[in-house]
Structure formats: structure tokens, C-alpha cells
């Protein structure tokens, strides 16, 4: 919320719109006719164990969105769980207990513009059913990724993230869960219509200590780090420009190469 061109001060009221309760079964795939816009919410029901509700929304590349799924209503779902899919239908990410208690909440930055799909379900597909509320909000289109290990942004194996170094000296930090460990290939490449000219990549351990850095790789200005190990650990991947001297868009990716 702000004033036009940042001119003017005063109080304001910020409201969101509810679509109300959606009756009947919501489709369980991309044929869904149920859609949300940022600032809207809907209430519905996981009708029986195994039921899936797919809700679409229009996303804009580079914009951040927060999706929350909360137990609510007369017969609340015990443990909400959400998954997110790209316009192509490919899987992007998920959340189980990122909200209050066992409620689900995830924040992501859209890699591309187009219709994305939220799949609302129960964590326990075999036993859980009940009512829930789904909310969609859009974040500030400015700098949305924290510059330290307090970050809520994350990167996953096989799911590239497109981000922006917004200003000189800006740094974007992403959490990465290494799972069972292995050999991981971290890459930071200039990308998009305004690519980052000289990416600089660092990987930190769970306490924020530097494990490795890289400026130029494979005869290019892009950056690459290969690390081995780290079972069960959270690492932090830092997207930066060399000496903080550049701005622009980048693609950050992690590839699993093999078991360590």
C-alpha cells in the first residue's frame, strides 16, 4: 500500500475479498474452474480422504505470492497441505506446516507469467478430511528476498529460481535443505531481459559460515559451485553480483549429481 508516486500521507483501510464458501467438489486437476486473485480467499471442503482441490491463479513473473491454507469451519481439516504447479503443470514446491500450528503457508516468486495451480489437500490422504480456508496474497514487487540467513526464500533441487539483484550491493539468500546429502551442483547465471552482468555465488553452512564462493566458471562470467555431503543439513545459497557492482536478473539452480 502506498501513495501515488510516493506523494502524500494519510491513513487508509486495506481490505481483502472473500469468494465465500465454494459448494460442490472442486476439480482435482488443471481443468478446474475455480480461481483466486491476490487479496481473495475461499472456503471449501476436502470431502473425503484422498480428495484434492485445484485452484488456479494468474501470476506475473518476478512477483512474489503467499498461499495459506488454514483449518477452519465446522469440521476443520486436521492438517492442511498445499502444492504448487507451473502453467505447464510441472511441480514447483509444497508446504505442510509453514503457517501457524499445522496450517500450511508458502511464499514463492513466479518464474514465469501465466496460470499457476494450487493443489489443496490433507497431509494424511488416507484418513483426513474437513473444511479449510485458502488465501492468496501478492507481495511487494520490490526486493523480496532477505540478505541473511533469516530468509524465508528457498531453492530446491531441479526447481530453478529467477530473482533480481535490485540495487547495487543487494544480496539474495535462499535456504536449501540437502536431504540425505550427496553431490550438489549450484549455479548462478545471468538471465531474463535484463541479465545480471557478473554473478557471484556463495554457499554458507547452517550457521552462516562460508563454505565456498565462485565468481567466474567454465569460461563465462556465470558462477558454479559443486559441494559434497551435508546429510540432513540446511545450507544457505547467496546470489550476488561481483563486488556488488551490478544489478539485473538471475537464475539460481541446484542439481543433484550423485550420492556422496
Describe this structure in words.
This protein has 260 residues and is an all-beta fold. 0% of the residues lie in helices and 46% in strands. The protein has strands at residues 17-21, 40-46, 53-59, 64-71, 80-85, 91-95, 104-109, 114-122, 130-138, 161-165, 172-177, 182-190, 199-204, 210-214, 223-229, 234-241, 248-258. It has a five-stranded mixed β-sheet, with no helix packed on it. A four-stranded antiparallel β-sheet has the order 3-8-5-6, with no helix packed on it. The protein has a four-stranded antiparallel β-sheet with strand order 10-17-12-15, with no helix packed on it. The model is unreliable at 3-8 and 12-18 (pLDDT under 50).
Name the poorly predicted regions: 3-8, 12-18
By DSSP, the count of extended strands is: 17
Rg over CA atoms, rounded to whole Å, is: 20 Å
Average predicted confidence as pLDDT: 87
Q: Report the β-strand fraction as a percent range.
A: over 45%
Distance between the termini: 48 Å
SS element count, helices: 0
Helix-residue proportion:
under 10%
Tell me about the largest β-sheet.
Answer: 5 strands, mixed
SSE pattern = EEEEEEEEEEEEEEEEE
Which outline best applies?
Answer: globular
SSE diagram, text form:
Elements: E1 17-21, E2 40-46, E3 53-59, E4 64-71, E5 80-85, E6 91-95, E7 104-109, E8 114-122, E9 130-138, E10 161-165, E11 172-177, E12 182-190, E13 199-204, E14 210-214, E15 223-229, E16 234-241, E17 248-258
Parallel strand pairs: 1-2
Antiparallel strand pairs: 2-9, 3-8, 4-7, 4-9, 5-6, 5-8, 10-17, 11-16, 12-15, 12-17, 13-14, 13-16
